Amino acid sequence: MRMPKHIWLALVGGLAGCDGRHSWLAGAGAEARLIEDLFWPFLIGAVAIWTAVMVFAVIAFRRRPKGSDERIGRAIILWGGGVLPAVVVAALLITGLLTLRAMASRPSALTVHVDAEQWWWRVIYETPDGKVFSANEIRLPLGKTTLLMLTSDDVIHSFWAPALGGKLDMIPGRTNRMTLTPVRTGRWGGLCAEFCGAAHAQMRFEVVVMEPDAFRDWLVAESEPAAPSALRMERGLSLFLDEGCAACHTVRGTQANGRVGPDLTHLAARGRIGAGLLALSDANLRRWITHTTDVKPGVRMPSYPAMPPDDLDQITQFLMALE
Ligand code: HEC
Ligand SMILES: [Cu+2]
């Protein structure tokens, strides 16, 4: 039988998704490796048991019944259908629980709060000098354990950065804890894994794993107010304030201190906009501002389709200067 073309296309398309950035087989985190250690024995055990059951089934079909069969049958049901599954399931449960405990009990060097919002991520780093606000990108130091405090401001979301570790629900009024210990530098993908409304599929983030020194420098830079070169762009800044952007967005060092949307103080230091949707670029910022609701249907930011081109230039330049 020939397989229809669209099935092949679906299979190839599915494989194309295995880019490693979202794969727990990438081995980018100590916690992901614990899950991997659990996965292979589960898989091999499941295949072995399935094969044995199939072999017994085929034998049972082919054999002619004999007088002693009933006694043997009872023994198979007792041992194969009762005792063995009980032992296997108990063993799986115990190893699963031990893995869960191993994942949750590492002492952490850093605490990061992640608040899920429809449909983006508020990220707050705890430092000795206070809190550092960011969004949609989580930076972590290599080889150190970070405690993530996960919560939500509206509905239930779920935090998942597969390359680094497990998946955990983010529930309003509750703080769930997860630790991540990255063991490979790089940019890894993350996403919301619990349906949370219209733009759920566009609710992504990036985890950037950095060498500890580079991370420390980045965190200091992130804690600073906006770059002086941006603050000198008077026209762009005043448009940002007058167009109402400031009611929803914070740019530290200016009067903009809205909390409805992502902190934009260091927007241009991030790789993407719209919670992972578009690469950061001049053209994409324009598109985002003038066609917000087309680019991300359901988004909690109004579109500005009628903004005069000159004003759009000024605001975009201002945003691109927020390094
Ligand atoms: C009513 C509140 C509101 C107003 C007004 C508003 N925004 Fe937003 N903005 C948001 C929200 C909410 C998001 C997050 C959207 C998402 O990704 O789902 C956002 C996202 C953004 C982003 C992407 C940030 C990131 O890290 O992904 C940029 C850039 C941005 N807004 C710029 C502007 C500009 C410029 C204006 C004014 C012309 C403006 N916004 C007006 C609420 C607002
Ligand atoms: Cu979601």
From TrEMBL:
Function per UniProt: Subunits I and II form the functional core of the enzyme complex. Electrons originating in cytochrome c are transferred via heme a and Cu(A) to the binuclear center formed by heme a3 and Cu(B).
Record's keyword annotation contains Transmembrane: yes
Membrane topology category: Multi-pass membrane protein
Descriptive protein name: Cytochrome aa3 subunit 2
Domain Cytochrome oxidase subunit II copper A binding: start-end pairs: 107-221
Keywords carried by this UniProt record: Copper, Electron transport, Heme, Iron, Membrane, Metal-binding, Respiratory chain, Transmembrane, Transmembrane helix, Transport
Catalytic activity from the UniProt record: 4 Fe(II)-[cytochrome c] + O2 + 8 H(+)(in) = 4 Fe(III)-[cytochrome c] + 2 H2O + 4 H(+)(out)
Cellular localisation: Membrane
Transmembrane segments: 38-61, 73-98
Domain Cytochrome c: 231-323
The family this protein is said to belong to: Belongs to the cytochrome c oxidase subunit 2 family.
